[in-house]
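Continuing from the previous page of notes. For each protein in this section, the sequence appears first, followed by its C-alpha cells. Read the first protein now.
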Amino acid sequence: MVSRACSVGYRRRMNIPCSGGKTVRPVVIAHRGASRRALENSLEAFSLSLSDRADTIELDVRLSADGVPVVLHDDRTGRIARENLSVARCSAARLRRVRLKNGEPLPFLADVLDLIRGAVPLQVEVKAAGGAAEALRAIDRTRYAGEVTLSSRLREECLAARASRPAVPCGLVTGRPSASDVAFCLRHSLSSIHPDHRRLSALRIRKIREAGVPFVPYTVDDEERFFRLAACGAAGVFSNRAEELRAAWRERFPGGE
C-alpha cells in the first residue's frame, strides 16, 4: 500500500510564516539517509535516519541485469563499494555478494523496505529505465504499508509511474527548472519539482510558485541557505544534514515545527 500523504505534506508546509504568525518548517528529506554521518544509501545511513525520526528518507534505485531494484546512486558500485561493477550488467545474485566500504552488503530495495517498515515516509528516486515499475512491484510484493513517493529525472519514468499508479505521488528531478519542466509537472499532475538549489534564481522560484507546483530543492546542507529557501516558499529540501537542519530550525523558531 502506498499513500498520498507525502505530497499533501509538501502542500501543507509550503509557505512561512503561516496565518496567525506561526512558522511552519518545510519538510527536510534525509538525502540517501543520514549520509553525512554514514555511508550514503547504506542500511547504516537509513537506520540513523530512522533513529532521528526523519521527516522522509530518500534513496536511489537502479536495476540489476535481471530487473531487481538495487539501492545505489551511481551506475557502477565503485564509489561506495569494495569492487567496481556495472549494476545493469550484473545479476541480482552477483550484486548480493558486493560489500560496501563500511562492510555491509549492497542493499536492495526490499532490504530497505524491510528495515523502514513504514516508520517514516520514503522517497524513491528512479535512476534507470523501467525502475518505477519494478520499484512498485517490490513495494507490492513486500506488502509495504508505509508512505511512498516516487521521483525521477527521467520523464518516461514519471509518466510510467503516473500511468500505472496515479495515486502515488511522483516528482520531477531537474537541474535548472525550465518552463518545459514546470509545464510537464502541471500536464501530468506531478506532486512536486526537485531542482538543484544552486541553479534557482528569484525569477525561477517566482515562476514555479505562480504555477502552483511545490518545489523541493536538492541538496541543501547550509543552514542559512535552508532558511532562505524556506522564506521563498520551498515545500521542502533534500539534505545530507537533515537532522542538523531540523535542529537549527527548532533553535531559530521554537515551537515552529
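Done with the first. The second protein uses the same format. Note its length before scrolling.
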Amino acid sequence: MRRLDRFDPTLRLLARVAGLGSGRGVLLRLLLVVSGVAAAGVQPTAPADARGDAAQIAASQIDTAQVDTSQIDAAVAAALRGTGARGLALAVIEAGRVVHVRAAGARNAAGEPLRTDTVMYGASLTKAAFAWMVMQLVDEGRLTLDRPIAGLLPQPLPDYGSPAGFAPWRDLAGDDRWRALTPRILLTHAVGFANFAFVEPDGTLRFHFAPGSRYAYSGEGLILLQFVLQEGLGLDVGAEMQRRVFDRFGMRRTGMTWRDDFAANLADGWTLEGAPVAHDARSRVRAAGSMDTTIADMARFAAAYVRGDGLSPTARAELARPQRPITTATQFPTLQPELPPAQRRADLAAGLGVIVFDGPQGPGFMKGGHDDITANIWVCLERPQRCVVIMANDARAEAALPGLVEAILGPTGAPWRWEYGALRFWPAAAQALDGAPPATP
C-alpha cells in the first residue's frame, strides 16, 4: 500500500484492519466483498461510492507469492462486475515464465465463453511485436536504427505517391524533412506526423514539428517504417512477423491479417455504451495495429520478450531503454503542447515500440492497445521479469486495467494518468496508482 494516509478515515480504518490480518490477502478479500457496490468506473453519471472505493484502493495489491491464482481470477470477476464489461483475459509472467492465463466473460453477444485461445484484436500491442522484429533485423546487420530512410529507399519517398494501404507520401513533396527520418525516430514516435494522415482535417500528411525534436504518438510513423522495409529491403512484413515472431514463440493463433481458422473461436466486442460490434477481419498488414492474437499467445510473447529470447543482449536492452523524453501530460491528443520542464515526469520516455518508466520496483515498460471495442495493456518490470498482460473485448474494461495490474504486480510506477488521461478508474484509485488526483466524473 502507498500513501494511504492521504485518504479518508474509512480507508485508514481499513488499512489498520488489514494490518491485523494476513496483509494483502485480507485486502483482496475486502475488494471482493465491496465490489458489488463499487463505482461502475466509466459511467460518467455514476459517482463512486466513497466507502466502496476506499476498500478497493486498500485492496490494490495481490502478492502472488502469498496467495493462489484463484484470488486473481476472483479480482477479474469483480472487475467485470464493477465496470459492466462483458469479457476480459489476463496473463501473469513471473521470473520470465508464464504462471497464469485466464479468460472470463463472453466473446460475443450470443454469450459464448471467452477462452484463452479465443482470437482477440491486439490493436497497438502490434507495435511492440513489430519493434521486436525490427531489432532482429538490426542484430543481423540488415538495418541500422540511425541511418536515414532516404538511404534505404530506391527513390524519394514523395515519388511513391499514395500506394494502397499506406499514407499519401506524395503530400511530402517539397518538404525535405522526410530525409532526416530514421528507424529510431519512427519507432519512438518522433516523426512529427499526426497519429494517421486520415485524422488530419484535410487528409493531408504533413510535419507538425521537426523530426526527432519531441515525442507525439504516431502510428503513421511505424507504418512508414513498414513501407521502408518493404520497398528498401524487399521484405514482406507480414511474412517476417509470422516467421520471426509468431512461429518462433509458438503463437499459433496469431497473425497480422485475418485467417479463416480464426472464425470458429473469435471475440467480437462491446463499446463504452454496451453496443456489440463484430470483429473486423483485417485484410492489410499494418505495423501500427493489425495483429490478431490470443491471451495465451500474448503471454508467450511477453515472457520471451522480457527474457530477451531471440535477440542479442544489446538489442533487447535497446527496446526498453529510455530513448526519448515524453513531455506531454497525456498520450492523447497526440499533438498537444509540451509541458513546462518542471511539470514533466523525468523518468517517462519512449523506448522502441513501448513506453518506459522507473518505479518503486525499478525500471519497467508498458504498451497499451485501444479502439472502440478493445482495451489492452501490457506492463513488465525488468529486474524481476514480472509482467501482466490484459486483453479485453469491451471498452468498458479499460477503467479496471490499472487496478488489476497494480493488484498483481504491486506498485509499479506505471504512468496511468498519462496513458488514460481523464478516464475514471475502477477502483477510483488514482492517488494510490500514480499520485494523480482522480478525474472528475
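What the second structure shows: Residues 1-63, 428-441 have pLDDT under 50 and may be disordered. The chain has two domains: 1-85+398-441, 96-393. We return to this in next week's lecture.
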